Each structure stands twice: as structure tokens, then as C-alpha cells.
TrEMBL record:
Primary residence: cytoplasm
Top-tier EC class: transferase
Lineage: Bacteria, Thermotogati, Synergistota, Synergistia, Synergistales
This enzyme's EC code(s): 2.5.1.55
Stated name of the protein: 2-dehydro-3-deoxyphosphooctonate aldolase
Domain of life: Bacteria
Length: 286
């Protein structure tokens, strides 16, 4: 894939010589649990030489049901995220849903995330871009990858050059998502590092009626495919007990399985980075 701009997130580089892993629970449940996950993930990532970013939401504003658990809210949630970043000594990413949340969240986290459903929202992109923080923008489930060029353009026009683009599956009929891996080189050609969201790609939006379903058995095969393609970053939701998680449990990776997931990712990523000359495979000019 074509060379993309490197994005600095606190003290790590996304798009550089090392794969970056962004992982954590879907939503903040308890502070102690989130901190434990951050510390465990940092340890696993260090073992394989991966950069690590802790991820979690302070408010899941897009839950299927109005009665679903949404998290501790913006004030408490951002305080937790800031403290987790300090205590675990890791960068932190969280998603925002409204323009007014951008500046507030930017004071507590290192990377702002734009949810897939909201990636076309001009005011949200502009507000996030003006904070001076790097952005991780998820491609909408209804958009073609080349259409993310307009999204990147909005960010750059609003003052943000440091944009990561994230693939998280495309709508494939009701309650189903499918990953078109062509989207990763297409988005990387826009001059942005690319991230693969492995766990949301196996989600079944609204598939359980009052909440989303998913099938975590497909997470590792998709990660292997993405790693073989040559991604810059990997996004995944992990939980000590996914079946008891308050959000996205069906598609979350059990914390006890994470090391093996990272080990297999490492073996493929190492081959790709050391042995494959993607420039020689670039036929775009022919």
C-alpha cells in the first residue's frame, strides 16, 4: 500500500515502523476494571513490540434501546479516562458525538474518535479538528472508501492534518456487515494511516432486537487478513467477561484470549513489514 502520513498520538507514532493496537472495553463500566484492562493490554502489546492506546467510551449515545447502559457520562467518564492514561502511562482515545464535546474531551484524552454513523457531520468534524488533537475517523457502514476523501478534506480545511481512517465493515443486508479489504489501500492512498476495527466488523447492528449482536468467532480470521494486507493500527474491544459486558459483549474478545490474538497478529505483521515490498505491487499508475 502507498505510504501514508504518520500521526503522532502522545508519545507513539501511528503509521510508523510498529503496529499500533487500540483496545479496551466498549464503554466504561467501572474505573478499576478499565484500569486493569489498560494495564494488561499494555503488557501484552509490549511483549510483541506493539504501540498501545487505551480505548473506551464515556457515553454510548448510539445504543439500540433508550434503556441501554450508556456509561458514566462526560464529566465522570473523562476524569476516569484521564486518570487511566496517567496511571497506566498510555495514550487514550474516546469517541465524541456532538461538536460541544470536542474541546472538553480534548483536555482529557490524546486522540479523538469520530463514530462511523457521524463521519459526515461537518460541524462535528470541524470542532474536533480545531482542538489540535489527532483524529481517528471511522468509515460509515454506508459509505464507499473513496468517499472518505471528502471527510479528510473537511478535517484538513478545519485545521487537522493528523487523521487516521478506520475500517469497521459495510452494511450487507439487515443486521449484517461485510469487510471489503480493498477499502484499506483505498483509504491509505488518501494520505492517512489506516486502522482496522476487528470487533465492530463482526457486530450485528440491532441484531438482538433491543441491542446489537455479533459473532466473535470471526474476529481472529479478519485480523489475520487485515494484518496480511499491511495495516497501521488494529482496533478491538476486549473485556474480562464479554458475556457479562454491558455493551458489545457478543463481539468483544475475552481478555484471556488477547495474548494469542496478538501473537498471531505479530507473526503475520512481522512478515509483511520485513518481506513484502508493497511499492512493487502498486499498479495504480499502469
Amino acid at each position: 500500500m502507498k505510504t501514508a502520513r504518520e500521526v503522532r498520538v502522545r508519545d507513539i507514532t501511528v503509521g510508523g515502523a510498529r503496529l499500533t493496537v487500540a483496545a479496551g472495553p466498549c464503554v466504561l463500566d467501572t474505573f478499576d476494571e478499565a484500569l486493569m484492562i489498560a494495564r494488561e493490554m499494555k503488557k501484552y502489546c509490549a511483549e510483541f513490540g506493539f504501540n498501545y492506546i487505551f480505548k473506551a467510551s464515556f457515553d454510548k449515545a448510539n445504543r439500540t434501546s433508550i434503556t441501554s447502559f450508556r456509561g458514566p457520562g462526560i464529566e465522570t467518564g473523562l476524569e476516569w479516562l484521564s486518570e487511566i492514561g496517567r496511571l497506566a502511562d498510555v495514550p487514550v482515545v474516546t469517541d465524541i458525538h456532538e461538536p460541544g464535546q470536542a474541546e472538553i474531551a480534548a483536555r482529557h484524552v490524546d486522540l479523538l474518535q469520530i463514530p462511523a454513523f457521524l463521519c459526515r457531520q461537518t460541524d462535528l468534524l470541524a470542532a474536533a479538528s480545531k482542538t489540535g488533537k489527532p483524529l481517528n475517523v471511522k468509515k460509515a457502514q454506508f459509505m464507499a472508501p473513496e468517499d472518505m476523501g471528502a471527510v479528510v478534506g473537511k478535517c484538513r480545511e478545519s485545521g487537522c492534518e493528523d487523521v487516521i481512517l478506520c475500517e469497521r465493515g459495510t452494511a450487507f443486508g439487515y443486521h449484517e456487515l461485510s469487510v471489503d479489504f480493498r477499502s484499506l489501500p483505498v483509504m491509505r492512498a488518501l494520505g492517512c494511516p489506516v486502522m482496522f476495527d476487528a470487533t465492530h466488523s463482526v457486530q450485528k447492528p440491532g441484531g438482538k432486537g433491543t441491542c446489537s449482536g455479533g459473532d466473535r468467532s470471526f474476529v481472529l480470521p479478519l485480523i489475520r487478513a487485515a494484518a496480511a494486507l499491511g495495516i497501521d493500527a488494529l482496533f478491538m474491544e476486549v473485556h474480562p467477561n464479554p458475556d457479562a459486558a454491558k455493551c458489545d459483549g457478543p463481539n468483544s474478545i475475552p481478555l484471556s484470549k488477547v495474548r494469542e490474538v496478538l501473537r498471531q497478529t505479530y507473526e503475520i505483521d512481522k512478515i509483511v513489514r520485513e518481506k513484502i515490498d508493497f511499492a512493487a505491487l502498486d499498479w495504480s499508475e499502469e
